């Protein structure tokens, strides 16, 4: 679904992404792991149009999307979430969801004068959809709370809910488990799995929690120093000497010395 070819992103002399190439298969939940500073979030930002690549190419189902802005990619069904949730804190959780779809009649001045019935009809439909989404995510009890008042895990679920308000095709989740308690983390994992199985969402997940990755992701891609280091099942990744070296600074051949 997504193909990344020899992608580079440089910040001055620092090569955050340094020739990364990978493929994200349609219908998969792909895990992206690696030590801090490996270039994972920068890779996400380049694919999602937040950053312009220095060089390289990104395609989505054969279409070149390299450097397209986020709003264009949004309309193509490519969405991403962030490590820190970006909710509108003064609005209710329901309102946060209702504002996601673009092209609403209420956004046009002419319709606010002469299209009030159409605006009211759209608002009822969006409210019903938002309620359906929150029920799916088991957060209907926070519908009327201000988004700034709910917990970190509930904000992450709310961000996931935003992707359900439009026709998302592929969603990039950046450390969805960061700062989330274990109970809500399992709720998030179950929601991702259901969206994948029941609604055909494709996911790419950056996460440091290996239990979370093991529960959801196949395949898993490991990055280090801006490059793709290895790809396979989590068991294969854990057994890969290059991966161990990237995380621990030593290879399997030296594991006895490390243990000592």
From TrEMBL:
Protein name, as recorded: Branched-chain amino acid ABC transporter, ATP-binding protein
InterPro entries according to UniProt: AAA+_ATPase (IPR003593), ABC_AA/LPS_Transport (IPR051120), ABC_transporter-like_ATP-bd (IPR003439), ABC_transporter-like_CS (IPR017871), BCA_ABC_TP_C (IPR032823), P-loop_NTPase (IPR027417)
Matching Pfam families: ABC_tran, BCA_ABC_TP_C
UniProt signal peptide: none
Natural source organism: Maritimibacter alkaliphilus HTCC2654
Protein origin, superkingdom: Bacteria
MF (Gene Ontology): ATP binding; ATP hydrolysis activity
Every ABC transporter domain range: 2-250
GO cellular component: plasma membrane
UniProt keyword annotations, A-Z: ATP-binding, Nucleotide-binding, Transport
């Amino acid at each position: 679904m997504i193909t990344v070819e020899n992608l580079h992103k440089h910040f001055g002399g620092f090569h955050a992404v340094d020739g990364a190439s990978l493929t994200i298969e349609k219908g998969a939940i792909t895990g992206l792991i690696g030590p801090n500073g490996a270039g994972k979030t920068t890779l996400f930002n380049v694919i999602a149009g937040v950053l312009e690549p220095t060089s390289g190419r990104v395609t989505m189902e054969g279409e070149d999307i390299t450097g397209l802005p986020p709003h264009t990619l949004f309309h193509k069904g490519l969405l991403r979430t962030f490590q820190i949730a970006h909710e509108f804190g003064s609005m209710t959780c329901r309102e946060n969801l209702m504002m996601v779809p673009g092209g609403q009649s209420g956004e046009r001045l002419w319709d606010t004068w002469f299209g009030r019935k159409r605006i009211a009809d759209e608002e009822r439909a969006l409210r019903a959809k938002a309620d359906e989404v929150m029920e799916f995510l088991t957060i209907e009890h926070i519908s009327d709370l201000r988004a700034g008042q709910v917990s970190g895990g509930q904000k992450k679920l709310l961000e996931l809910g935003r992707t359900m308000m439009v026709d998302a095709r592929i969603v990039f989740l950046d450390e969805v488990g960061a700062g989330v308690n274990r109970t809500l983390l399992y709720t998030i994992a179950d929601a991702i799995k259901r969206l994948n199985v029941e609604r055909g969402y494709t996911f790419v997940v950056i996460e440091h929690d290996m239990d979370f990755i093991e529960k959801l992701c196949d395949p898993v891609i490991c990055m280090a120093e801006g490059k793709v280091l290895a790809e396979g099942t989590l068991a294969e990744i854990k057994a890969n000497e290059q991966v161990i070296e990237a995380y621990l600074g030593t290879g399997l051949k030296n594991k006895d010395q490390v243990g000592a």
